[in-house]
Amino acid sequence: xxxxxxxxxxxxxxxxxxxxxxxxxxxxxxxxxxxxxxxxxxxxxxxxxxxxxxxxxxxxxxxxxxxxxxxxxxxxxxxxxxxxxxxxxxxxxxxxxxxxxxxxxxxxxxxxxxxxxxxxxxxxxxxxxxxxxxxxxxxxxxxxxxxxxxxxxxxxxxxxxxxxxxxxxxxxxxxxxxxxxxxxxxxxxxxxxxxxxxxxxxxxxxxxxxxxxxxxxxxxxxxxxxxxxxxxxxxxxxxxxxxxxxxxxxxxxxxxxxxxxxxxxxxxxxxxxxxxxxxxxxxxxxxxxx
Amino acid sequence: xxxxxxxxxxxxxxxxxxxxxxxxxxxxxxxxxxxxxxxxxxxxxxxxxxxxxxxxxxxxxxxxxxxxxxxxxxxxxxxxxxxxxxxxxxxxxxxxxxxxxxxxxxxxxxxxxxxxxxxxxxxxxxxxxxxxxxxxxxxxxxxxxxxxxxxxxxxxxxxxxxxxxxxxxxxxxxxxxxxxxxxxxxxxxxxxxxxxxxxxxxxxxxxxxxxxxxxxxxxxxxxxxxxxxxxxxxxxxxxxxxxxxxxxxxxxxxxxxxxxxxxxxxxxxxxxxxxxxxxxxxxxxxxxxxxxxxxxxxxxxxxxxxxxxxxxxxxxxxxxxxxxxxxxxxxxxxxxxxxxxxxxxxxxxxxxxxxxxxxxxxxxxxxxxxxxxxxxxxxxxxxxxxxxxxxxxxxxxxxxxxxxxxxxxxxxxxxxxxxxxxxxxxxxxxxxxxxxxxxxxxxxxxxxxxxxxxxxxxxxxxxxxxxxxxxxxxxxxxxxxxxxxxxxxxxxxxxxxxxxxxxxxxxxxxxxxxxxxxxxxxxxxxxxxxxxxxxx
Lengths: 290, 536
Known about the structure:
The complex is a heterodimer. Chain A is α/β, with parallel strands linked by helices. Chain A has helices at 50-58, 97-108, 114-127, 143-156, 173-190, 201-207, 236-241, 243-273, 282-289, and strands at residues 7-16, 24-34, 39-43, 65-70, 73-74, 82-85, 161-165, 193-198, 210-214, 222-227. Chain A has a domain at 37-61 and 71-81 and 159-255: Rossmann fold. Chain A is built from nine helices and ten strands. By secondary structure, chain B is an all-alpha fold. Chains A and B meet through strand 6 and helix 2 of A and helix 16 and helix 17 of B.
């Protein structure tokens, strides 16, 4: 029962106050259930509120309505049980790779011995392929290496949920593929429930078990959810040769196109509805006053 | 090779990138490029400095003041050397006072030998000086006497002519008719006479000034002879003082003397026959013992010399700086963390920030005086005087008020920069702390302070610079021994020698300020995690 609804998001709303009218609802009625160990991608046009949903799950962004339940507990604020990997690596520049990971480990394993903590840190760094660069400072590492440290820091927390906010957005395509493989390998081992925010259709299909497509904002919600029925572990080259891959791709792209069309339609409708202001000259207005 | 890059890195951290091409040239790396860089960024600045010195050497001596002319660079250099020599001599005298046994005898022999060597030289120099002075005077007389004669003659002529003219005018006045034209003509004549008189007087004065200039003109030979004689005289005087410290005033000799007297008294006491005599001798023994104790702990009363005063000033500025940092950094962090606290502090900060040290000092002086009613018996002063290095420089109320004034004036840059650094923490880093649910303290220690550290150090650097400037003024006002006091003493002395020593202080203060700034730059570079360059 709980395994099927390990993470449950119901009627999630995010509204920002608008001083000249009703609040602007960026996300309105977002519903999603995630199974334990599942990898779910959230895809949508930029500005549709994907990241807002993720930061709300992380607890970094207060919720305006609805709720989020993770493993039977409603969340209230950020916590190490939901580890986040941001788009920028967000490493502390005055700590080296080892210390950056250790910062979280110390917090999550307060009763572990020094030896145990060290092993955890060293294990997570070696998993992301940084066994040789533990003593390096962020300024001495490339963007891809920094993002690897960010991933190591997240998995070292042994989180219930891993939140990836466009983690490859700022990397070149070669590094991006490398890191996708690194993360997939980790997830195949650890079976961490994961939410991946992305706007890259191929990435979404390759990485996830289900792809959640969001409608355009404001008032964004879940449009459609697509099951990706590839076996794990996956191999990029094999996947790209299957017809199924391209069918999934076509489905996602057509949904995104629909969204775009819908948006345009709404825009033109709005323009028609808006009453045209009658232009009055200054003289007429003065005449009206007297 | 590795050493080369280590050296280059050290130069970079110290903010001395100017010397980078010198190192590279030594290792033979692209000599042409390095020579060009040396030419542009080392030789040209040196030339500018040389141009400044040349300008100073030209302009300075042309401005006459009450304390002689503005000293030229050479005079200032000489004054600097004299100041240092004075310190070395005083140190030697202090050491002489403590010398005992063979060491004392050897020193005494050396001093005596030198005195014997110098005395005939000094006599000779004095004789030569007298000779040169005589020669100069006769030469001057020869040169000046005809001029004086001429001057006297001019005065006599002027007086006669003036009398003649006045008699004529009187005569004319007696015979004035009623005609308007004639009377007006007389008025004109009188006016013309007055003008003539004034013109003649001015001419006379100018002539006399000319003679005076010739008399005042410096004769290089005479100056040299005088300087040589003075130098020898000074060294002799110093050597005689040393001899005193090694003989009659010497600690070990005085102690031996006192011991001998004590022994005599004790002998006498043991053999005293009457009770009255025994009591009196016993009293004398006690008095002698007390005197011996006093002698044992006594030291040579060394006057304050510039190097000691510099050291005391540096310690004073660091005392104030540490005080300022202890106050400013925590308040700055609180201001950066909490906007309400920042708002609460803003009026105080804006109000007190612009207050001049000249205003703070008297107030602080009185308040500190209130805490220390009796300087010889104060727990606060005892506490400071017990600190190892600081204690050797005699912490007194004036020192403390100078240090507190420095703190009051220099804490603002650190406070403002700390607040800014803490408030401007990267939002991503805050998010990391939130996700990890770090507590207040670990958030402070692991995220906030390290992130703000470069800006805190930038503030500390400005603070130290401000403190150093404020300190000199504070010492000058509070008469706390230090560089400021030295300047004040030299100003009050008002001779051309002391005028030159004030110029020495300009360079001493500048160099130490530069050094302090460099030290802070190194610290700032070491803590700036992003390796950001700092302004020079």
